[in-house]
Amino acid sequence: MAEWDRVWVGARIAAMVAGAEPYGKVAADALAVKGERIAWIGAASEALRRTAEQGIPIERCEGLWIMPGLIDCHTHLVYGGNRVEEFEKRLCGVSYEEIARAGGGIQSTVRATREADTETLAAVAAVRAKRLMAEGVTTIEVKSGYGLDLATERRMLEAARALEHELPVSIKTTYLGLHALPGEYRDDRQRFVAQVSGPWLESLAAAGLVDAVDAFCENIAFTLDETETFLAAAKKLGLRAHVHAGQLSDMGAAELAARYGALSADHLEYLDERGAKALRASGTVAVLLPGAYYTLRQATPPPVAMLRAAGVPMAVSTDANPGTSPCNSILLILNMACTLFGLTPDEAVAGATRHAARALGLQEEIGTLEVGKRADFALWRIESPAELCYNLGVNPCVGVVHRGRARH
Ligand code: NIG
Ligand code: FE
Q1: Mean pLDDT of the chain
Q2: Which of 88, 152, 325, 337 could form a disulfide with 316 if both were Cys (CB 3.0 to 4.6 A apart)?
Q3: How far is it, in rounded angstroms, from Cα 248 to Cα 191?
Q4: Residue nearest to atom 3 of ligand 1 (CA)
Q5: What confidence score (pLDDT) does residue 408 get?
Q6: To the nearest whole percent, how much of the chain has pLDDT over 90?
Q7: Which atom of ligand 1 is nearest to the CA of 146?
């Protein structure tokens, strides 16, 4: 039997492994795949010798860059309706908080999502997922959180899982139990938090629909104590967490996330040094979401220099959602991470590969090109990896391999 299934030769390879070389560039120009795994990385001359002997199929890359498949580690891809009217209101000076407090915002997407059937939810999510995939994305995290009742949360998670069966992409599902307080619990917050943290979480987890949990810890959403109740319940079930932390104010949510060993703390426009140090100590990834920062026209970017100095890994993601980041382009987000937040292109690309993998607990599987890792990679017609960040509205992706198989 041939030792490889297929080999790509004549490429430039940015493995995104941490080290001295920018973008983890390796002195090799060929990569071979066996099954779902990267089997070998080395010189084209050696690859050609072995392929000739064994009749292995060859892809000639002619200088294309091969880089790890991009990972979008924070999305709300499944939802009904859109929020274009809210966009118009915000442009007239009404704030996101005001809209939320008046029953719009997340609540209006909850109404539209409850009304949509599961097939429709899956179909609109697939359209959005395909846009990401066209830009080299091979793994997407998808949150629930627009159902806020058990039945709709379940349907959202099922629709997210369905993407993986319909499309050549890997999906991680997150139960965003605490996103907003639904109208029917207006007078009973405690009971809602108890339902989410008790029977609803147990039921969704038992159905195998929950890879991790998430909570929106914010003055317009849930308190530290409420968030902690949920995180504690998840921990008992052995589930890791993400936390929407410090998007509009610093309530200490990043420290709470760190205390629970969360996979990630996300947004972090409002974060002090204690929070950054706590994230570093717990190995929690800071997920930066420039699309939401841009859409809300926020004035305070996340403290990137502080995170860098503290040694906190920084991921970047679209936060694709109808309210604060109606964006299905990871490449645009890479540009914004540099232009708006001051990441270097190397940091931004690491943020959508190596660090995004860690934010999903998948660092042993994906996010870098190494022998034994999953063969998820994209081929780019560019002269340098920084071009993934430099261009605006340009997609130089010319091929994607997911689990060892070329997408068509
Ligand atoms: O990540 N912050 C909370 N959740 C989303 C926004 C959801 C919405 O406005 O629909 C976010 O920005
Ligand atoms: Fe979000």
Answers
A1: 97
A2: 337
A3: 25
A4: 216
A5: 62
A6: 98
A7: 10
Q: Alpha-carbon distance 399 to 325, whole Å?
A: 26
pLDDT tens string 341-350: 999 999 999 9
Cα 181 to averaged position of ligand 1 atoms, centre (Å): 13
Give the C-alpha distances (Å, rounded to integers) separating 50 from 8, 53, 61, 404: 13, 5, 18, 19
CA distances from 288 to 304, 316, 398 (A): 9, 5, 27
Q: Which ligand is nearest to the CA of 325?
A: 1
Give ligand 1 pocket residues (Cβ under 6 A).
105-106, 109, 216, 244, 247, 292, 319, 321-324
Check residue 364 and give its pLDDT.
98
Residues 267 and 290: their CA atoms lie apart, in Å, by 8
pTM of full prediction above 0.85: yes
Taken as a whole, the chain contains a residue count of 408
In sequence order, the 6+-apart residues with CB closer than 8 A to the CB of 52 are none
Beta bridge partners of 204: none
- State pLDDT tens for residues 8-52: 999 999 999 999 999 999 999 999 999 999 999 999 999 999 999
Q: Left, alpha or beta for 238 (phi > 0: left; psi -120 to 50: alpha)?
A: left
